[in-house]
Amino acid sequence: MSGDARLWCDRLVRGLGQHEFDLYALSRTRRQEDEGWLPLPPHVSRVRTAPLWTADEDGVTYGRRARRRFAESYAEFVGVLCAGPAADGPHGTVVSDGAAGPDGAAGSNGPGEAGGSGAVPGSLADRFGSALHGLAELARDEGGLAAALRSDTALRTLERACRAPGALGTAREARVPDLLAVAAHLERALRPLSLDWYGDDGLGAADLCHATAGGPAALAGLLAQHFSGVPLLVTEYGVQLRSHYLATGPDTATPAVRALLAAFHGRLAAEVYRRAAIITPGNAHTRRWQERCGADRARIRTVHPGMEAARFTEVGESPDRAEPDTLVWVGRIEPAKDLVSLLHAFAEVRKEEPKARLRVVGAPAGPEGEAYLGHCRALAAQLFPDEADGVHAVGDNPVSFDEIGGPEAPTLADAYASGEIVVLSSVVEGFPAGLVEAMFCGRATVSTDVGAVVEAIGGTGLVVPPRNPRALAEACVTLLRDPERRARLGAAARARALELFTVEQNIAAFHSIYLEIVSHCPVRRVVLDRSGEPLPFGFPAEARVPGRWTGPTARVAQPAVPGRAPGAVLRPASVRATPLTATEGAL
Hints:
This protein is an alpha/beta fold. It has 21 helices and 14 strands. Helix 15 (366-383) links the parallel strand 7 and strand 8 (399-402).
């Protein structure tokens, strides 16, 4: 886990000090391993990690009976992925490639993509779940799946499923390179099935498993639920299925590969949502995707991300710090942020307000971001030749590019403070964290209508269509010319952000959800009396309520924890929660 998700998980664990945590982390790249560890609070009892970016041989050799079990389960598994429209039955729907997502955004393929899932009919959902758990049981019994998933048997089984009568048309067109690519992706995504985390000394001993992402990252929690009945809580601030659709476009894979992988991720998303006790999307945009994938509305609780507001307090209480006629854009520099449209819009703004200035504050995201930043700098130089007051003066460009930590923007708060208006020009956005930070700073905003933008600002800023420089320019000019409206919108935005998007509200919401889940599940610990005999009803429901309790406390039989004396008394208000952290995007 990295970036904002990593910080969110750290704040959540630290904020829920009344609970005990075991952390189980999946890593996708060596870089994540090398980023180092955050200091752990004392109520984290154990940390276990699994580097899924390496594909070392597990040394497991199957006997004849195990090979037959694998062939049967894997044939059923890939058979569901290759199943065509007829297999969905009368209630199944198939939408062609390139369909709009649930928010209607073109180019954001929805859950009903060909080969995808949508709401999976019962028969296919049951077949997929049964095959997935059959593979997991085989891995538990035999010690792993890696060699089997890379074997010729797996490849031939996948090929037969693609060629079977009634299979997807695109699947039947798969060639050997396509089959190899799909088999490799499935092997990588299913690596959590081979982990040794699911016994009574691991996830099986938890009161609940909290998966901090969906898709393959939630497989460990799904198996803990299957093997030990541990309830699963799934939090998604960005939908993994949507991330897969966006990352796997026509220029990255053949139609056959795209169809089969979309089927896998769609079926897996539906299975995770079906088995989860509660699902917590971070916004309505994510919630719509989950519902389209079959999630039960009764088990969905929207919990907005919690963000640190204190570092923006001084700026929020001093709206007069802004530089006159200045627009500010803050974020990661990459094509999805559409700075090209912003620059063209600013050219229109300058025609109406010649004194206007634009500050772009942010760092490029990888090599692609570096190239995009270079393109934007060249475009800015072309659109706005350096201006000088006289023939002997040095020219000055009205567009500047800065990074946080530089002299012009020492801190993130200083970046927002420098502008009268904060602009967001993205064409793709999940939850707009930068927009909420601007709201904490009491700044009026102009944003494109993408992702959860409208939900976040709730009428406290101006919203325009994406990829529309003229509309973006008109909104900016409107606010530049109306200081009273800017102040009014900025104050309303700050009040909304402090009410909905702080760390405190996020922690309180998850504490309540933890208690709600465990209150509906059997107590998983044996409570003993003074003589060591089981004590019926020794762990009463009211012990889940936070607060200080007096009187004798029953001892709880539980595995020894490093650093804790044997027989240590469990705090009555505690719940052993196990966050499952993983990278964003498909494994």
